[in-house]
Amino acid sequence: MSEAMGVAALLAEAQPVVGRREARVLLRHQLGRDEAWLIAHGEDACAAADVRAYRAMVARRAGGEPVAYITGEREFFGRAFVVNPAVLIPRPETELLVELALQRTPRGARVLDLGTGSGCIGITLAAERPDLRVTLVDASPEALQVARQNSQRWAPATTELLASDWFAGLAGRCFDLIASNPPYIAGGDIHLAQGDLRFEPSAALVAGEGGLADIRCIVAGASLHLEPGGWLLFEHGHDQQAACTSLLRQAGYREVFSAPDLAGILRVSGGRRP
């Protein structure tokens, strides 16, 4: 049975296995402490139960399981979002989609987060702008359970959740802005067998037609659910910008644009309904 062990010694044991940063993230989570506490209390003893639980988390991470699924949360736009294997792990590049949406939503706008997953996009918009009314849609009941937890945590008064396969459950409803981070990875892409993607839900990652099938569906259907002058914005793959802007123009959208993420990759495209 594990015995009590000092904070610094426990970190030193884990670092060769998972690296310094992740060793500290996992221990902060287990102890419910922040980084400043770890620095100041390196000689404090961790209880035997904490040592056992921490070593189990380190072993899971060593096996490749994402840190976010081990801790049950991931930060996005400065807020901690609940996550589990039913939803994608929020990523920094998706914050660009939120920033672009915030720039294009008038006061009191109605916003749709299509294929919401954890809810990080729509809930962040609602939390940043309490004047907005945000609808979160997903076809997965398990994903909606996660989104509901995050909605209750960050924006319970201005968000609603609906089960819908893209626009199927939204007949007669229109919005001022639609935002989406849909599946856009082609089946058989080598990245699906690497890193965190191995553990994330394939239905939220993979799309047919070389990764463009769901984007085509969204572009084709969004105009029926956008008010005149409303915006459609969506994330896409690093090599899909030209195809996405072409789809938008063919569908009659105006002011079509693409924007780069912090790595300089054109990551989000969008257009405005006439």
Molecular structure report:
The protein has 274 residues and is α/β, with parallel strands linked by helices. It has 2 domains: 5-63; 86-272, 3-Layer(aba) Sandwich (Rossmann fold), CATH 3.40.50. It contains 11 helices and 13 strands. It has a 7-stranded mixed β-sheet, with helices on both faces. It is elongated. The termini are far apart.
Number of discrete helical segments: 11
Spell out the helices and strands N to C.
Answer: EHHHEHHEEHEHEHEEEEHHEHEE
Q: At CATH's second level, what is the architecture of the largest domain?
A: 3-Layer(aba) Sandwich
Q: Give the C-alpha Rg.
A: 21 Å
End-to-end distance, in Å?
68 Å
Summarize the structure.
The protein has 274 residues and is α/β, with parallel strands linked by helices.
Describe the secondary-structure layout:
Layout (H helix, E strand, L loop, with lengths): L4 E2 H12 L1 H12 L3 H6 L4 E2 L1 H15 L4 H5 L1 E4 L2 E4 L12 H9 L6 E5 L5 H9 L4 E6 L2 H14 L4 E5 L11 E6 L4 E2 L19 E2 H4 L1 H10 L3 E10 L5 H10 L3 E7 L5 E7 L2
Helix pairs in contact: 1-2, 1-4, 2-4, 6-7, 7-8
Quick tags:
274 residues, alpha/beta, Rossmann fold, seven-stranded mixed beta sheet, two-stranded antiparallel ribbon, 11 helices, 13 strands
